[in-house]
Amino acid sequence: MAEPKDDDFLDDPERAEAEARAFETEEIDDADVELETLRAERDEMKDKWMRALADAENSRKRADKQRREAEQYGGSKLARDMLPVYDNLKRALEAAGDKTEENTALLEGIELTMRELSNTFRKHGLVVISPAVGDKFDPNQHEAMFEAPVPGTKAGEIIQVSAEGFMLHDRLLRPAQVGVSSFTG
Fold first, then answer.
1. What contacts 184, CB < 8 A, 6 or more positions away?
2. So what's the pLDDT on residue 4?
3. What would the pLDDT profile of 46-64 be if each residue is shown by its tens digit?
4. What's the rounded Cα separation, in Å, for the pair 69 and 49?
5. Whole-structure pTM over 0.85, yes or no?
6. What sign results for the dihedral spanned by CA atoms 14, 16, 19, 23?
């Protein structure tokens, strides 16, 4: 709006008053627009800040979860590689049979090694899954190596244990390998 001339107001006082009101209104409108613009920018910045804050919190939680999982399950490859050692020690004990004068020292050495390995497994959260003949087959912990109709058993019962299984904390590292009855008589 053009600046009013001083001599225009002298001729028409009503016009001068109207123009003064319009000039004030225009200043108020400009201030309102500027205030609304600043509020919109503030709200946009607050929204961006809140999102960045939430993003940072989510990243922190994700990193914390990954750290915990790495602590618990980071050794799973090594543990999996040690399972055949456990199996072989167990087979050696079973194959040796009863203690005799000749094999007592050897059997005691194998038993000691087996006990130490079992303690180390337990210390690191590795738990043996040791099903027994007659237990019910559980596909979450057992792997059926074969099925056979064995009289005197129910379908789904374990009839032979080929190898023990292992859990690492709450995860299955290796299922127990078993034979399962398919007898329905």
1. 149, 155
2. 53
3. 999 999 999 999 999 999 9
4. 30
5. no
6. negative
